[in-house]
Amino acid sequence: MQNKKTGMAAFFGGGMLLVLVSIVLALITATVQHKYGLGKDGARLMIRITAAVSMILFMLLFLSGALSRYRPGRFSDWVADNRRFIGLSFATSHLVHGGFLLSLLLYGKDYFLSIVRWDTIVLGGLAYVIIFMMVFTSIWPVLMQRMAWLKPFYFYSMYYLWLIFFATFAERAWSKPVTYLPYVLITLAALWLNIREVRNRKR
Q: Under a CB-based contact definition with an 8 Å cutoff, are residues 133 and 155 in contact?
């Protein structure tokens, strides 16, 4: 039994995790496009789905330290061992998310701006810049050693990305509390656990 669990953890780790997430995203995309077509409804549904997938992957990154401290075990060990590929999977999911957002431009600038506000474009664009920087340093980790400023930059950038997710879901929770309030509560709980873990680490 022990070997089986270890084997499963190894199978779902490393580069295979990125492959599996990519396959799942491709299957979801194909299913949604088959049911709703290539129109606005399919694109907007994919935007919501990829936002949820991205949030789950990001929260694993955000809580990796807290999981190791407060819930030590196989799962927290798996998260810690695969943090790099969880990050790459998150970047992949959010790239797909951004692609579907941009696809709304096909229906005109006015329609796009009715869905995506200017502040979302600016703040979300900065989030993508941060994500791309994280991808580069994940692929070429030597950059982290040569640029000492990157470590504190990424530390605070994680909180910025958290804020983007929280603000996105909190705004929608006002009109659709049943759908989005659980996301808000999850992000708040994650922030509390993360801050608690950081404070305990500094003691």
A: no
- Tell me the domain boundaries of the chain: 2-202
Alpha-carbon dihedral 156, 157, 163, 166, rounded to 10 degrees: -120
| Buried b or exposed e, range 62-71, using 16+ CB within 10 angstroms | bbbbbbeeee
pLDDT tens-digit profile, the chain (203 residues): 444 455 656 667 788 999 999 999 999 999 998 888 778 888 999 999 999 999 999 999 999 888 888 888 888 889 988 999 999 999 999 999 999 999 888 888 888 888 888 888 899 999 999 999 888 887 777 666 677 777 888 889 999 999 999 999 999 899 899 989 999 999 999 999 999 888 887 66
The answer to whether 21 and 96 are in contact (CB under 8 A) is no
For the chain, the maximum distance between any two Cα atoms, rounded to a whole number of angstroms, is 58
Q: Which amino acid is at 54?
A: S
Cα separation, 125 vs 180, whole angstroms: 23
Question: Which amino acid, 179?
Answer: T
Q: What is the dihedral of CA 166, 136, 198, 12, to 10 degrees?
A: 80
60 token code pair: 């694993």
